[in-house]
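Researcher: Here's a chain I'd like modeled. Treat it as a single chain, no partners, no ligands.
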Amino acid sequence: MTARVFIVDGARTPFLKVRDEPGPFSAADLAVAATRALLARQPFDAEDLDQVILGCVIAAPDEANIARIVGLRVGTGFAVPAYTVQRNCASGLQAVASAYDDIRAGRAHLVLAGGTEAMSRAPIQWNMAMSRWLARLYRAKTPARRLRALADFRLGHLRPVFSLLLGLRDPVVSLSMGQTAEIVAHRFHIERLAQDSYALQSHQRVAASQADGLLRDEVEPLYGSRGESYGQDDGVRPDTDLEKLGRLKPVFDRRFGGVTSGNSSQITDGAAVVLLASEAMVQRRRLPVLAEIVDHAWAGVDPAQMGLGPVHATAKLLHAHGLSIEDLRHVELNEAFSAQVLACQAAFASPAYAKEELGLDAPLGAIDPARLNPHGGAVALGHPVGATGARLVLHLARSLRDQPGAFGLATLCIGGGQGGAMLIRGGGAS
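Model: Modeled as a single isolated chain. Structure tokens:
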């Protein structure tokens, strides 16, 4: 496994904040929009792809194996295989990692990878009591049995089950993702003001990036069926301040907590895709190169402290390549919660954490705040869980394209107690 793997291009949709009703686009619609725009500017056809790999967490019932649906809709033809991956919040990163592995192994030379999520369209289901009642009703073959089954109906059977809320709760430790953020905030003594200050910085950085046009090349507009258009991420609040953020009440620990809707990532719809190519394909097609993927690593942690997963995955990755935190020019660490990012920073710098949790003699060292999410993150942009990992890779690659040889890191925590990290090197294929 020695083939080099390059990111040659990528695109994403605007990330659209969920606003209490199903959004205008399905997960497949979002991925198709980003992919069509991406493929339209390539010197090859969709049929030339070796495969399509997408991450998606909350697949709609009519979008099973969404990667295949997207591939066929963008014109890959029947012969190009496709598969969908699911690693919770890191599904998009897993898709890119899987594509990297296949190219490294020589099984592919040109792969479309990424992720998509329409969180606003997460199914609302019947509860188990309703399902059992319906089963009894359908089994009843005579009028008398049907009447008895109907008599067993209770209004409580109509209580809906919101699959999105279930998906954001860890079934092993019975904690929501927000509660795990409160745990790591308590562990590292991260106060409410620090969380709100970080959230404010995220909004300010994204707003500045939008104003400066730094996101223009990676974001492709969306157009709805009624003529409406969406040109940029719409969850950004450039007018927010610490006073406004401070008025919000804690959500997950109402008495003692600091995690609020304002310092947490937003529920969002969106898609992000990248094109990966082998060195041979880059040379054959004369493809431009944004960056090279060097490696990726994964780690497991206590599900109750899942937010610390990036520290463990990053430690494995840096150790494998003899690098340090100081060697990283740009770090994209997903902002699931302000508290979680700040806890990771504290863990990176902690001698005790390094020794007791990572088995290291010295801490990795804190990431320079100027190099950490310099253009903002999910607190302002949103976190469409299947797509975020791919967005991190895409933005990192575009940020490093004019910095040959510079190392960058994309990393994120994963519900269920994991962390993923990908090491990227900027510059061309020389």
